[in-house]
Amino acid sequence: MKYIDEYRNAKPAARYARSIARLMTKPWTIMEVCGGQTHAIVRFGIDALLPHELSLVHGPGCPVCVTPLELIDKAIEIASRPNVIFCSFGDMLRVPGSAKDLLTVKAAGGDVRMVYSPLDAVKLAREHPDREVVFFAVGFETTAPANAMAVYQAHQQRLANFSMLVSHVLVPPAMEAILSSPDNRVQGFLAAGHVCTVMGCEEYEPLARKYRVPIVVTGFEPLDILQGVYMCVRQLEGGRAEVENQYTRSVRKAGNLSARQLIREVFDVTPRKWRGIGEIARSGLGLRPEYAGFDAERRFDVAGRRVEEPAECVSGRILRGLIKPHECPAFGSRCTPEHPLGATMVSSEGACAAYYRYRK
Amino acid sequence: MNGEPAHERIAEFSCPIPISDHPNILLAHGGGGQLTHSLIEKMFAPAFRNSLLESRHDGAVLSFNGIRLAFTTDSHVVHPLFFPGGDIGTLAVNGTVNDLAMCGARPVYLSAGFIIEEGMPMETLWRVVQSMRCAAARDGVQLVTGDTKVVEKGKGDGLFINTSGIGILEHNLSIAPASVRDGDVILLSGDIGRHGIAIMAVREGLSFESAIQSDCASVAGPVMELLKTGIEIHCLRDLTRGGLATALVEITEVARLQADLEETAIPVREEVRGACELLGLDPLYVANEGRFVALVPSKDALQALTLMKSHSGDACVIGRVIAPQSRSFESGVVTIRSPIGASRIVDRLSGEQLPRIC
Q1: pTM to 2 decimals?
Q2: Which of chain B's residues have a Cβ under 8 Å away from the Cβ of A338?
Q3: Cα distance between residue B33 and residue B245, in whole Å
Q4: Residue B2: per-residue pLDDT
Q5: DSSP classification of residue B325
Q6: CB A49 to CB B340 under 8 A?
Q7: Cα-Cα-Cα-Cα dihedral sign, residues B80, B81, B82, B87
Q8: Which end of chain A is more exposed for a tag (fewer CB within 10 A), N or C?
Q9: Which value does ipTM take for this structure?
Q10: Does A161 share its domain with A71?
């Protein structure tokens, strides 16, 4: 397939792997931030091509994994109400809350629907004026423009029966939380290419300077990732700490200006709780006061809920790159995709699920 | 009263799947993945235990005075009833015909049970019945008995059809997962993933540049020819929900062998690959309705491939069966070599494949 097969070719992959090995004079630990990259690394076996002294650790960039338990419980509570049509992307449906998941709500008769775009939810709201349509707005900067557009359109169309349960998170504050942690072992980052397609690369410059860490904006195909690793190792070996762009076919330095403008129009930067990591200041997006009428937490009066994470799940340590999934004592025994203890085992992009599915 | 202690008898009647796991049936219990597997293994198989059921094949092979018959059943629920490349009627006939063919049987007789929702237009039912008539005629099978039930409006999704079938085995081979041997070659009859993506595109209103047609078809023709040429077929399996991956995982688990696949050898149409990339789905797990795998000894592989290619140009060798290469693989495993040359495990899907966020 055009623009895909070129990036999944065994010969250049082997060449890149050899070049990386030649560059290395000492061990390095690099974190790929995005869950999509983690998935590609494990699915294509990219790490198997790399030298043993290079450790790839898997970062917090899976939106499903970092959505806090209490938000899932709120989603389940709202979805269980009789007059609600609850819309979500597919992979949120299976994430366990404290007692059940959204698929269970659906099995018990709740109107839970999988949609491919938040604009589908807006359309549903128009078609069902007598029902409350709620969209579960989860994700990083990548999904924020489409979600902002949905709220913007609902506002324009004066749709009183549309609302959003928002749990948007931002990548740079999570990277800073990892770097500033005393037990941090990450020496270089592959930043998430699609996030930077929207936001650009500039907001990573202060991080690279302050923590003396190379950050390479990287794509998602095997050759993208290998080239990203190569660029990162070259910086580490050369003693440099800069922001570089591997994913030039998609990412411009300033990002997508109209998408950024739309995000600013609808959302404000807010503190956000991350599953397994805790609350991080200025790490998420929430609806601005002008759009607060579309906030499902207010409309359904669930804003005050607090839920503690189960102690046995170590996904927080996995998301910070401190341990690998198979090092968790519950991995594959008490925690499987059928009976996940935490979201990293549920999402197709979760590090634990990727290891379980492709490695066991 | 028998002599067993009371608690053992009670245990027989208590549900073997802990209620705390899944107190209710989820869609994934019918998805062909891990939950379907556990429903069969923990509830159905122990409840109905017998030696024929143990073969875990697409149908049962029964012997009567030297005559071997295959017997199978399949229920069909599909929304929408009509989709690009087929409809519920063609599916209902082809599905059961294919299951019989996978036992190495020549399909002969079918039954049909219709569960119809009140209010369904007579014309719609007529079109489905005509599709069934044509599909049956193509394979030379007769629909010899049936049943009709009508449920109240809202209690069914338009139309459900169950078909059962009987076929005759006209050879002495034992075609089943247990017959698979170290060294067998794995042949695939055509490109994969078309049915699942065609249905999803219609159901979810996804539009692609060209409409993706379901692969819905009978595979009895090529299978009967394979048998006629005397190829020593070890196992056949049609790829339905759960896709190629699930079919091979099931075979290797019974055979307790390792199947090594080559990802670049598996044909997937451009438009299906595109849809899968877009939605974050793996074509290995996407449903098919007219494809099968054949596992044959390497001496017969070329002949089998030539014959299969005469039916579909996409037919190909996708891998090989070997003895398990590590202790943890001894209960059976499927591995696949990725396009960049590294190997990974192919497992059953834990639930339904769900499109991902970004």
Answers
A1: 0.86
A2: 21, 34-35, 38, 350-351
A3: 10
A4: 45
A5: S
A6: yes
A7: positive
A8: N
A9: 0.81
A10: yes
